[in-house]
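step: validate -> pass
step: tokenize input -> pass
step: predict -> running
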Amino acid sequence: MNRKYRLTRTSDIQRVRRSGRSYAHPLLVLITQEVSEASNFSVAFLASKSLGGAVQRNRAKRRLRAAFEQVYKDIRPGIQMLIIARIGVLEAPFTDVQQAMEQCLQKARAINPNDTANNSQI
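step: predict -> pass
step: emit ->
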């Protein structure tokens, strides 16, 4: 995934966290906010210190980024997202992390449910 899709400014992350809608799963939390002026989507991957040390937090974010990379081409423009790791993401099989990502994105209507079904068959 290209870095131009990253949500990097602290003020943007705080705004999305404060006024966005959240969608929870045992492995991750997705927070979304619509942005009308954006031509692309933007995303930030977060892991709190409750997951463990820096190694565990970085591993959790890498797993989330890898799962997101499978579906990011189907994300509709004009949406900003925070994807927050939960403790289960470190121990879960990667296919479960991918399914959790797709489920949350579909609940948030950030992707078309038919697009992910077509991509998983290829």
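step: describe -> The beta strands are 21-24, 28-34, 42-46, 79-85.
step: cleanup -> pass
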